[in-house]
Automatic annotation (TrEMBL):
Cell compartment(s), UniProt: Membrane
Keyword Acetylation found: no
Keyword field: Glycoprotein, Membrane, Transmembrane, Transmembrane helix
Protein name (Swiss-Prot/TrEMBL): Tetraspanin-4
Higher taxonomy: Eukaryota, Metazoa, Chordata, Craniata, Vertebrata
Highest taxon listed in the record's lineage: Eukaryota
Residue ranges of the TM segments: 87-107, 113-138, 233-258
GO-annotated cellular components: membrane
Family: Belongs to the tetraspanin (TM4SF) family.
PROSITE patterns in the cross-refs: TM4_1 (PS00421)
Main localization (coarse): membrane
Membrane topology annotation: Multi-pass membrane protein
Length: 269
């Protein structure tokens, strides 16, 4: 029996155009050096996204307070610029800037921006932890200083340029049903008379602060607000823990992406 011969396989012809296409294909860079930044693959969220959104929210609330309430909650005589609106605006701007830096660093795979985001977020985290530790370590001293400073601030009540302080005391005394820092007699030194603001009255009416002490709130505002904060300590603690968790996740993602970019650059080199 005769066997049929196998058909010859045609040899590949490497034309100049074929070689050029292969060379250019080998030199084409990948879409991204990080797997989760490729269009067909998903991965962890950009480290600065949550910070940027949170910063925008804080900044918006601060601007709203400044526009509608003036310098609301400016209770300190030593730090007149330490108002709720100013604090929220500064904090929101700073947090938004850090978050924007993290987002750009993740999108561009920029080592400098990622490392800067990590360092700044770490400094904020350490600062918050330090403030919390000092607050609990020196609670008594902070209590005494706060009461003295608030009593000094009473002398700025209803004076030109202190609308924020006036509004803050009026709202606190009305909502918490209290009068003065330690008691209603704190206002006697302010007016040099037996008189309190109308917001101290049990039943508000024009010039009711000139009436007898029996028509005024007796509870001290400092202790009343302090008790209210202690009763809501759980909510404050949960908020603090959530904030710390978001910051820790941001630090983790930033350092992970930074290490991936460094490894990719080393591999490509």
């Amino acid at each position: 029996m005769g066997s049929s011969a196998a058909a010859p396989v045609p040899a590949r012809v490497h034309t100049p155009n074929t070689r050029a296409r292969r060379l250019l294909g080998a030199l084409d860079p990948p879409v991204s050096t990080l797997p989760w930044l490729r269009p067909d693959q998903a991965g962890p969220e950009e480290p600065g996204g949550a910070s940027e959104l949170g910063g925008c929210g804080i900044l918006g609330v601060g601007i709203w307070l400044a526009a509608t309430q003036g310098n609301f909650a400016t209770l300190s005589a030593s730090f007149p610029s330490l108002s709720a609106a100013n604090l929220l605006i500064v904090t929101g701007t700073f947090v938004m800037a850090i978050g924007f830096m993290g987002c750009i660093g993740a999108i561009k795979e920029n080592k400098c921006l990622l490392l800067t985001f990590f360092v700044m977020l770490l400094l904020v985290f350490l600062l918050e932890a330090t403030i919390a530790i000092l607050f609990f370590a020196y609670t008594d001293k902070i209590d005494r200083y706060a009461q003295q400073d608030l009593k000094k601030g009473l002398h700025l009540y209803d004076t030109p340029g202190n609308v924020g302080l006036t509004n803050a005391w009026s709202i606190i005394q009305t909502d918490f049903r209290c009068c003065g820092v330690s008691n209603y007699t704190d206002w006697f030194e302010v007016y040099n008379a037996t008189r309190v603001p109308d917001s101290c009255c049990l039943e508000f009416s024009e010039s009711c602060g000139l009436h007898a002490p029996g028509t005024w709130w007796k509870a001290p505002c400092y202790e009343t607000v302090k008790i209210w904060l202690q009763e809501n300590l759980l909510a404050v603690g949960v908020f603090g823990l959530c904030t710390a968790l978001v910051q820790i996740l941001g630090l983790t993602f930033a350092m992970t992406m930074y290490c991936q970019v460094v490894k990719a650059d080393t591999y490509c080199a």
